[in-house]
């Protein structure tokens, strides 16, 4: 086969551009796995092994935490914030925590509810996995939850698109688009093919399969809004469904956001040139890097918890037992009021107020509203473990 023949073959490896009746050219993806088959080079194979090991260490480190479910709270919210920021939201982790604690401020970003929805969509997807495999049906349910009552809620949440969408600069027309996904009447077929691939007996390594599936979903772009976020949620759900991770603690959107242009360029290069291997190399680097970072965070959580338990033991005397209860509560609810503490330890308001004051004194809690009434306190050092790599 000559060089030109190979280039033409590879350019159509992921699919082909097909002229539509109204004149534009939409991309029609080929079914997975790629044909010609993937060439897993020695370098990519090493990277794949390293990524698998790093994921294994992350999963093990989470399971060594005293109560893994408590600590998942912040990992999920970090992924939600970063994945939503890729799509242009301005809300930070602090904004999301404040919104969930029902703290309403004049400068609260209007898009914070989109991030809160992302958290709900992930939690619902994970819960549904107990009775429903990853499928078009599950993806549609997640999409409906993601867009419920927020920007994009008028764009048929949970329904596959019935009109043409496109990707390009804000406000661009179909003629100015960088990429035009498959026409609407083909979307259901391509999603069905993707579902079959996910549940096939393919001998491809699982991380390779997940990397392929994410890129394919983004190419199909089956919804009028929210495709990027649903596609990234799909990565987490697949890792948990296949028991690679017991808990959803891989915030891969950190890597995608930090290399946002490369992320988009790799996805487009697959469509134009069939460069699946280059995309997979990029993807594996992300899994490796973020797994290592998330593992370090788990270690820092454990160290912080032990440090603060010692501080409570050394400083709170007879109130230490209640101090431990509040501390454990903070890992799932890092913002509290005195009334929250009162209800948690079932005591009087003055006793709860005194306990909170003591936790502020020893550096566990920090008042951040600046109010004299309705004050709120944040477990600042814990939040900062996740905030430091947010931007």
Any overview of this molecule?
- The chain is mainly α.
- It folds into two domains: 40-296, Fic-like fold; 316-387, Arc Repressor Mutant, subunit A.
- Helices cover 58% and strands 4% of the residues.
- It is built from 16 helices and five strands.
- It has helices spanning 3-11, 42-63, 68-86, 93-100, 112-128, 136-146, 187-198, 206-220, 227-241, 253-258, 260-273, 276-315, 320-330, 338-345, 349-361, 380-387; strands at residues 15-19, 25-29, 335-336, 366-367, 377-378.
- The strands form two sheets. It has a three-stranded antiparallel sheet with strand order 3-5-4.
- Helix 3 crosses helix 5 (112-128), helix 5 packs antiparallel against helix 6 and helix 8 runs antiparallel to helix 9 (227-241).
- It is elongated.
- It starts with a helix and ends with a helix.
- The mean pLDDT is 92.
- Keywords: ATP-binding, Nucleotide-binding, Nucleotidyltransferase, Transferase.
- ATP binds at residues 225-232, 263-264.
Low-confidence stretches: none
Specify the CATH architecture of the largest domain: Orthogonal Bundle
Q: How many domain units? A: 2
| Gap from first CA to last CA | 48 Å
CATH class of the largest domain: Mainly Alpha
Rg from C-alpha positions? Answer: 23 Å
Number of helices in the DSSP assignment: 16
Q: Percent of residues in beta strands?
A: under 5%
Class of secondary structure makeup: mainly alpha
What order do the SSEs take from the amino end to the carboxyl end, as H and E?
Answer: HEEHHHHHHHHHHHHEHHEEH
Pfam families: Fic, Fic_N
Binding site for ATP: 225-232, 263-264
Protein name: Protein adenylyltransferase SoFic (AMPylato r SoFic)
Organism: Cladocopium goreaui
């Amino acid at each position: 086969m000559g060089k030109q023949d190979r280039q033409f073959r590879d350019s159509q490896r992921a699919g082909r551009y097909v002229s539509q009746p109204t004149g534009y050219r939409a991309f029609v993806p080929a079914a997975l796995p790629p044909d010609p088959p993937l060439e897993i080079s020695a370098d990519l194979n090493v990277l794949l092994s390293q990524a698998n090991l790093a994921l294994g260490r992350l999963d093990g480190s989470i399971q060594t935490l005293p109560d893994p479910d408590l600590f998942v709270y912040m990992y999920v919210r970090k992924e939600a914030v970063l994945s939503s920021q890729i799509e242009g939201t301005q809300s930070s982790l602090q904004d999301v925590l404040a919104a969930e604690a029902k703290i309403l401020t004049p400068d609260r970003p209007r898009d914070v509810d989109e991030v809160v929805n992302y958290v709900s969509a992930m939690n619902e997807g994970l819960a549904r996995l107990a009775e429903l495999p990853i499928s078009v049906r599950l993806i549609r349910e997640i999409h409906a939850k993601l867009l419920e009552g927020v920007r994009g809620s008028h764009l048929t949440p949970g329904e596959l698109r019935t009109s043409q969408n496109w990707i390009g600069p804000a406000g661009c027309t179909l003629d100015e688009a960088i990429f035009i996904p498959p026409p609407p009447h083909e979307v259901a077929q391509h999603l069905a093919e993707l579902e079959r691939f996910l549940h096939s007996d393919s001998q491809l390594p699982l991380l390779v399969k997940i990397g392929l599936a994410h890129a394919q979903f983004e190419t199909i772009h089956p919804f009028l809004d929210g495709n990027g976020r649903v596609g990234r949620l799909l990565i987490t759900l697949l890792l948990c469904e296949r028991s690679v991770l017991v808990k959803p603690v891989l915030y891969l959107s950190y890597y995608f956001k930090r290399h946002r242009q490369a992320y988009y360029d790799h996805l487009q290069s697959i469509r134009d040139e069939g460069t699946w291997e280059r995309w997979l190399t990029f993807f594996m680097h992300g899994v490796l890097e973020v797994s290592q970072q998330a593992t370090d965070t788990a270690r820092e959580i454990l160290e912080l918890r032990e440090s603060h338990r010692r501080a409570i033991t050394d400083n709170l005397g007879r109130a230490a037992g209640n101090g431990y209860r509040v501390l454990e509560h903070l890992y799932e609810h890092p913002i509290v009021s005195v009334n929250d503490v009162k209800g948690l330890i079932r005591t009087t308001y003055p006793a709860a107020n005194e306990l909170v004051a003591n936790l502020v004194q020893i550096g566990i809690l920090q008042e951040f509203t600046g109010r004299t009434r309705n004050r709120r306190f944040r477990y600042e050092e814990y939040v900062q473990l996740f905030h430091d790599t947010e931007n």
